[in-house]
Every structure is written in C-alpha cells, then in structure tokens.
Amino acid sequence: MKSKAKRVRRHVTIREVAKAAGASVSTISAALNNSDYVSADMRSRIEAAIKTLKYCPNDLARGLRLQKTHSIAIVVPDLSNNFYIELVRGVKDYSASASYTILIGDSRENWEEERNYLDSFHRRRVDGVVRVPAMNTTGGKAKAILGNLPVVYADRHPREHDTHIGRVGVDNTQAAKSATSYLLSLGHRDIGIITGDASSGTSRDRLRGFISAIRSAKIRLDRSMIHAGHNDMESGHFHAMQLLTRGQRPTAIFCTNNMMALGALAAIQEIGLACPEEISLLGFDDFYWATLLRPSLTVVRQPAREIGMIAARILIDHIEGRSSIPTPALLKTQLIVRDSCCPPKKM
Amino acid sequence: MKSKAKRVRRHVTIREVAKAAGASVSTISAALNNSDYVSADMRSRIEAAIKTLKYCPNDLARGLRLQKTHSIAIVVPDLSNNFYIELVRGVKDYSASASYTILIGDSRENWEEERNYLDSFHRRRVDGVVRVPAMNTTGGKAKAILGNLPVVYADRHPREHDTHIGRVGVDNTQAAKSATSYLLSLGHRDIGIITGDASSGTSRDRLRGFISAIRSAKIRLDRSMIHAGHNDMESGHFHAMQLLTRGQRPTAIFCTNNMMALGALAAIQEIGLACPEEISLLGFDDFYWATLLRPSLTVVRQPAREIGMIAARILIDHIEGRSSIPTPALLKTQLIVRDSCCPPKKM
DNA sequence: AGTCTGTCCCGAAACGTTTTGGTTTTGGCT
DNA sequence: AGCCAAAACCAAAACGTTTCGGGACAGACT
After folding, report:
1. Distance in angstroms (rounded) separating the CA atoms of residues A217 and A45
2. What HEC string does chain B produce?
3. 3-state DSSP call for residue A226?
4. Max intra-chain CA distance, chain B
5. How far apart are CA A23 and CA A45, in angstroms?
6. How confident is the model at residue A36 (pLDDT cuts 50, 70, 90)?
7. Sorting pLDDT into bands at 50, 70 and 90, what band is A163?
C-alpha cells in the first residue's frame, strides 16, 4: 500500500503531448490551431503523439485564456412543444455552420428554471444567448442575471423595453388578423380566442390582431370570448371547456399556440362535439403530426427553424462585431388550411 | 481617438471584488464557497461588493482549478420524440437535486452529430455522460471520443460490449413479448412488426420478445412480416405501407417505437383502412397526445422520466465515488390499452 | 564577410479561480 | 507581562491553454 499514491491524472494535457513529440508547448498549440510556422515533420510527429496519447483539448483552459468560448445558449420555454424543437434546431444548424457550439435550456415556462439556466450559461461564459422568455417572467430580471451578455429574443419578446441586440419572430398581429379573417370569411361571427398570458408581448400582439379583424368586420367584440391561458395543453383544455359550456357557444375557437390547440381539441372530443361541423378549431404553430389528428388541424404556421437560424445569425454577427440585419426581424406566417375549420351550421 | 484604448473588460473578476471589499482574493473565494473563517463583517462587505459590481463567477476558471465541472451531459437521438424529452427531464431533475448541471445533445439519429456532441462535451470536461446512442452508430467509436469519461447508457445499449459504468432501460424482451401476447389474445394470427435498426440491442430485444411470443403460441413465424425501420416517422410509414399492400395483409401491426407508430398510422389513414376494425395498431412509448389521435393509441409505456433519473443517479453516484445500483437496471413497462387494437375481423 | 529575411521553434506571462501553508490579530489564561 | 490557541486573513502556486517577444539557423543578397 503506497501512502503517497500518485494522483490519477484524468486527462492528458498539451504538455504531455509536447514531451511525447519532442516539442515545446507553444509549438503544439500552434499546430493545433493550424497556424504559424510548424514544419511538416514536426506536425506529423505532433499528430502521432496526439493520436497515441488520445489528447483531448481542454475548452475550459482555452476559454479562460481566450476570453471567449465560441458557444451560445438557447433557452426555450417548453421542449415538449415541437415548435421550440424546430427553433432550437435552427439555432443549432446556423451555429454549427459558424462553428459555434450551443447549450440548450428548457425552462418549462418557469422563471426560476429559466433563471437557473441563464445563470449557469453565464457562468460558463457563453458568448451570447438567444432567449425565448418563460411566460411568468416577472420583469426585466434577466438583465441582472446576464449582465451585458448579448441577448437576442426569439418568438416572444419581453413586454418592458429590455436591453437586447435584436429580436426575431413573426408579425403576430398580422398573422392573427388574417387567421381570424379566414374564420370570418367562412361565416363565423361568434369566435372564441384562447391566448397566452398577457405578460407576453407576443400574446398581446396576437390578441390585437384578432380584435382588429373583428372590428374591421364591423362585428361587436364580445370580451367574454377572450380567454388568457398559459400556452400549455392543460389551460387550453380548461378554457375551451369554459367556452364550449357557456350559454352562447362560439362556432369557432382560435388558439394562439399549438399546445392550447391540443388542449382545446381534447375538450371538444370530451364534450363530444363534432369538429369542424359544430365547432371549428384554428391553431397556431404547425407540427409534424398535425395531419394525424382527426380532424387534421388547420393552423397558422410559423417558420420555426428559420426563426432560430436568423436569431443565431444576428447574435453571432454581433458577437463577431459584424453589423447585421436591422432588428426586429419579422418573418411571414402561412395559413395551412386542413380539416378543422368549416362554415358554421345555420341556426 | 485613443490609440491605446483600454480593453473592455467583459466580466468582473474575484480580484475586483477583493479590491472593492478591501479583502484578499482568497478571502473572497472562502466567502463564496462559504467555508473557513470569514467574519460576519467581512462577509457582508463582500456580499455588498458582489452585488454592486454584479460579479458572476467564472466556471471555466473554477472547473480548470477544481478539475471538475459538476456537470453531466445527456445526448439523445431525437428531441422531437417526446419519449426523449421526458428522459432528459428525468436526468435534469435528478441532476439538479444533486446540484449538477446538464448539457443536452440531440444527435438526430446521426452518428456524426452525436460524435460532435460527445466531443464537445468532453472538451468541456463534463464529469460524465448519459448516452442514448444514435441508431447508425457504426461501432464502439464513442470510446475513442470520450476517453475514460464515465458513461451510462439509457434506453438503448450498444451491441458490442462497450465500456460503461451502467445502463438502465426496460426489459425490452419481456415488454415486447407481453405486448405481442396481448395481440394474440385478441385473436390476431397475422401480426406484422416494424422494429428499429438491428444494430441496436434494444431493437433486437424487442424483436426477440415478439418472436418468443409467437413461438409460444405455436404459430408459424412469417419472417416477411418482420420489417426493420429507423425509429422515425418516415420509415414507419414506409414499412407499414409495405405490410398493408402485400398479398396477405396482417391484421395487426406492432411498432417498436412511437415515431414509427405514428408513421404507420399515417399509412393506415392514407390507404383508408379502418383502425382498429380492419387493422390493429400497437405502439411503443406513450406520449401526452396519444389520446388525441383517432383511434387513440394503445401502447406499451416506458417510464421515461424514471429511466432518466436513475441513469443520472448511477452516473453521479459513480462520479462521487459512491457505489450504486448494480447494472443494468431494468424497469417495468405497462401496457396502456386504448382504442387502436381490437379482435380481427373474421374472414 | 556582413547583413537581411524567412522559417521554425521556444520560454514565460496571462486568463480567473481554489487551496495550501502560512502570518497576524485577538483575547483568555497564568 | 508573558504565553498560547483560535480566529481571521493573506500570498503564491497551481490548473491547461494561447500569445508575445524573441532566438537560432539557413540561405540570399550586397
């Protein structure tokens, strides 16, 4: 039994590579970042040493020295919502093409969780973050967590004027307006809407678009038809129940995100209403299995992947000191007409 | 124009906190890791300084010095598969309770992607990784990427004897066997199966269970009823099409993961078969909107979240030098009977 | 012969922490 | 007054990189 057991060295360092290759540390570094002068002979010796020693660079040390990690964080409110998966993949794909690495956070619509993620990413010294803030975010507290890390908002944007270097999403007002107009054009006059929390600028914009369409059609706006949910299935279900069991039942329901549309569909099925004959359902955000539902869902599609890619681009451009697209970037939505909406039954 | 512009200091360091609090660097560190002696007076001065300077610890430096990052990685093959989201959340929740941080990777069933993630996480010096290997993994290459980082496998396990400190999943053979028995008990004799790639031990186990059930029932095994897909919707669709348009059509299809079940459902709908009357469909993995489908899907449910939690526990126990559950840990599945299976029509 | 220009390589300092092994201060006890 | 232990603090050495400023050598040109 050795009392002074040699500490197990978990990782091989550049120094050991240097020794093995008969070179100095700085030469290894130069070879690694294939720059500067290093002869072909030396280079091959180094590569051999790296291979046999199974050297794996230490990004902690690297980032510390460089004051830069070549990585960005993406924090979304709900990974089980396919929209955000697509968004994350957009961020990831663009970042990879710019050789940045991403760190993913899933706040589950919970500010505490989001704060933890943001803090953790900040401590890890990511170079920037693209953020889809959680619903119940109380205020511009993110600033306190992130210091002056560059932030670009995607999909949602904070209500108060938060400091950020850009934001990208769709023209929510316009999208909701034209979606509502579609319902109106089918003949619906009693339309219920289930929006997200009013703390989100995005939800308010969509509601604004809805109201605007109603007003343009010279229809009286019934405020009791407006329900504010929480962007999850449960609240979609709850509010759809409310809408469907009231005295004057709407002939159509517009849900401003996909989770709530699913919840509403569940409510409709539970009550046993025929959709779309007795109740039309219009969702926001498309998802890959929307066609599998019966009826298949009519939705307004957002270019989720593209939103992610552009967010990443704006962020990385900023990080690298390039000027970029003017902010905010507003992308176009598309109404995907499927089977969940039809003209209302005549009474 | 200053030629010698002072470099913008992006982050405030412990040293500046020390100056502001009139203390030494080591005292700040002691206060931060609230240990050692530090007087109440000093402690409050330090806290004040931290607050006003908005100090955020640098985990790169910390990890470098400590040779430990208090973080683990989880890489899964498909984040748009809800099963893996639940698994990730299990890992996350357990890790958080042990005050570990997680890094998420989404390989999209692609070994290149997975390799990139594993490499990136290794360079970041995570303390361990829980891994759900991508399908087309060619071999035990992960070892070459990860060196001797502790790995625990979740859900899937590699075919060849890969080095790892544990694995956790369900008893796939048993699960598939009893699921198949269920179909048999309904009266089905011509059952098609769409499995994952044979390179995965998990897929092979499920197939084994299927075959075992068939054999036990003394039914002739028709190998042309066995199709190997790729765990995605597309291949589920493709192989279901094959099965449904052949001469002797099966009366039931068993899909060994949820994505392929969705693809099969799409195929059934496309062809216009009545499900379950003309064709029963049995899936693997439950997901939150399985009840919204028409028919709602009968599935064998895996405890995804629990798998994640246990995987994290085994990993973290190992990292911290505690002994842990014997490996592999096999959890129980549950057959969730809904509407997509019924007795076959008599011919 | 001397000077210059490349090429190839190296030593040492820095990045922001934690830890080790101190030193100083305090106050209680003879 | 003298001593001692405990309490409170600190300086310096790591951790694994990259970069800066040279140095040695070779060949080309005066």
Report:
1. 77
2. CCCCCCCCCCCCCHHHHHHHHCCCHHHHHHHHCCCCCCCHHHHHHHHHHHHHHCCCCCHHHHHHHHCCCCEEEEEECCCCCHHHHHHHHHHHHHHHHCCCEEEEEECCCCHHHHHHHHHHHHHCCCCEEEECCCCCCCCCCHHHHHCCCCEEEECCCCCCCCCCCEEEEECHHHHHHHHHHHHHHHCCCCEEEEECCCCCHHHHHHHHHHHHHHHHCCCCCCHHHEEECCCCHHHHHHHHHHHHCCCCCCCEEEECCHHHHHHHHHHHHHHCCCCCCCCEEEEECCCCCHHHECCCCEEEECCHHHHHHHHHHHHHHHHCCCCCCCCCEEECCEEECCCCCCCCCCC
3. strand
4. 91
5. 9
6. confident
7. confident
Residues lying close to strand C (Cβ under 7 A), chosen from 65-94 of chain B, are 65-66
Mean pLDDT of B229-251: 95
Output A65 or B4, whichever has higher pLDDT: A65
Q: How far apart are CA B237 and CA A63, in angstroms?
A: 46
- For chain B, the average pLDDT equals 92
Place of tokens 């009545």: B274
User: Which residue in B266, B267, B147 sits closest to A291, CA to CA?
Assistant: B266
Q: What is the pLDDT of residues B133-178, one digit of tens each?
A: 998 766 557 888 999 899 999 999 876 667 888 999 999 999 999 9
Residue B117 CA to its chain's centroid (Å): 14
Residues 6+ apart with CB under 8 A from A319: A72, A127, A128, A150
Average pLDDT over chain A reads 92
Alpha carbon distance B315, B232 (integer Å): 28
Residues on chain B touching A103 (C-beta within 8 angstroms): 103-104
The nucleotide lying nearest A43 (C-alpha to C1') is C8
* Angle, alpha carbons A140-A144-A145 (nearest 5°): 110
Judging contacts by C-beta atoms under 8 Å, the chain A residues touching residue B92 are 106
Instruction: Tell me which protein residue sits closest to nucleotide D12, measuring alpha carbon to C1'.
Output: B26
Q: Which residue is nearest to nucleotide D7 (CA to C1')?
A: B37
Query: In the 3-class helix/strand/coil scheme, how is A233-290 assigned residue by residue?
Result: HHHHHHHHHHHHCCCCCCCEEEECCHHHHHHHHHHHHHHCCCCCCCCEEEEECCCCCH
What residues contact B237, with CB distance under 8 A and at least 6 apart? B263, B264, B266, B267
Question: With pLDDT > 90 as the criterion, what percentage of chain B qualifies?
Answer: 81
Interface test with B, best of A14, A122, A123, A286 (most B CBs within 10 A): A123
Residues A206-265 have pLDDT tens digits of 999 999 999 999 999 999 999 999 999 999 999 999 999 998 899 999 999 999 999 999
* Contact indicator for B45, B27 with CB cutoff of 8 Å: no
Task: Please tell me which residue of chain A has the smallest CA distance to B61.
Answer: A64
Span B334-338, mean pLDDT? 97
Reduced to 3 DSSP states, what percent helix, strand and coil does chain A have, rounded to the nearest 5?
Answer: 45, 15, 40
Predicted TM-score (pTM) of this structure? 0.94
Distance, CA of B224 to CA of B226 (rounded, Å) = 5
